[in-house]
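pinning this so it doesn't scroll away 📌
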Amino acid sequence: MLATSVGVKVFTATKAKEREELGEAVSLWLRQNGNPEILDTQLNQSSDNDYHCLSITLIYKK
């Protein structure tokens, strides 16, 4: 059995404009990194009285 190298990339945004552009940031990173095979994704949102944070986590095969 061959060992597989796995990477994790996290994208986060707290400001409204950054959250709107987060998908494009992910797409750009994928293109710039040779469209790695995505093994899993996770989308999280958290907030308090002042901030709303959105994060996208990609687990990919290197």
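📌 and the second one:
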Amino acid sequence: MIITAMRNWRPEPGDLLEWRPTEQARAIADAAPAEADPPTFLQQTHVRGFLAKQQRGGPHRAFLGVTTEVEGDLDEAALTRALTSYVHRHDGLQTYFSAAGPAIVRHRIDSTAIDFEVHRAGALEHTDAFAEYIHHRFENEATSVRWPGFAFGAVRRPGSFTIYYGCDHAFSDGASQVLALSELVDRYRAEVDGSEPSVYTSAPTGGFPDYACTEHALAQAHTAESPELAEWLQIFENHGSTMPAFALDLGLAPGETAPVRPVEFDLLDTAGTDAFDAVCKAAGGKLISGIYAALAITDYELAGRPEYYGMSVLNSRDVGNYALSQGWFCNFAPVTFRTADASSFRELVPLAHDGHLRSKRLARVPVQAVIMALLASGASAEEVAKSPHMLSYIDFRWFPGVGSTTYEKGLLFTGEGETANASMWINRDHSHLYFGSQTPDTPQARNELSRYHTHLHRVIAAIARDGDYAIPRSTVVDEGLILARHNN
């Protein structure tokens, strides 16, 4: 399983099959009343953004997708039962949203009405024709304002088939997508074989509407006296009351965005990743600590930043029985530490490790509590609303299904709209450590990001090879001298 750009998904030709709700199920869902409990803050913000873009006539790209290849002839009835039982297990996938005046409200279909049927959508004769077809499906079906909020289908051919699942971000995140694929394949295999699904599929799991209630309660508990909230605000103030931004100038004016240009490359192979991990642990941290330290060194050497200041994307599943649940279980917290206080990577790792641990502690504060506190403190609404520069790290070695052929062939991707950021996704599996980013597609951004990514790659490779990396005492240094020093 890897995260990659959607354009890299190119299934072989075959018959296109789509699973959609039956007319009766759709009618019952459309008539479902609003629930009293509110959606999460991220869901509300997301739905408002979707509705605003819809009014402007803009395309919907805020979805995630996952796909893999399955050996054997497709059993349509078995896959229909697998999809139905999957939706039954996850309460959040039984919901959709609407605007009720200024409020965003949730609707839920009666679970007894959940029912899907197969539609034949013709034949995929050329791989190149698939992109337009699948974008149309995801943009129109994987939305938050009508049940089911996802598009599910297959490309059938003799002896094998492609399975895919695209879901609106309001109902999913990266980890949920990986779990969804593993669960759907597991349920399908059990239906075909007449066997029991794995414990990961059959175990009881919490529903996302319950998580939303928990999150709202946590937000209300974090008042002005909350030490975590006070620390969050202090970090923000210490950095000019601004959100984290990319270290180099990407050439975009405030508020300006550009079409996304995906960037992805390998950082280390298996042996290199293991070596880098060992250096991080020997220095008193973990691999994620080393990633932050390498980013900090790159920021310091290219932009003269004496302190690392970034935003971490962290999962929030541990507030209940949500380890295997479907939903948007994410929170965000700043990571800060002084790069200039260390003379080497090994000295910097403990500082990065402490910064990461602090971010995990601060992530206990729901994002809506942070935003309200920032605004109450006098922070600029424009700055608070700005999308920060973020880092996400996923270790794909620990998900259900790892090692299976379908898992190893899996692809995870997101929609591609516009961005002003160059946020990073650094991930690990049994084969490599690799980098991904959705970047602004402008000449200046291309040039600066190429310089940054090349330098980051060199830093991480040098650490894996040499076991350390000397941090220069000056600020912005000559890249040629750095390269020469670490190649000698």
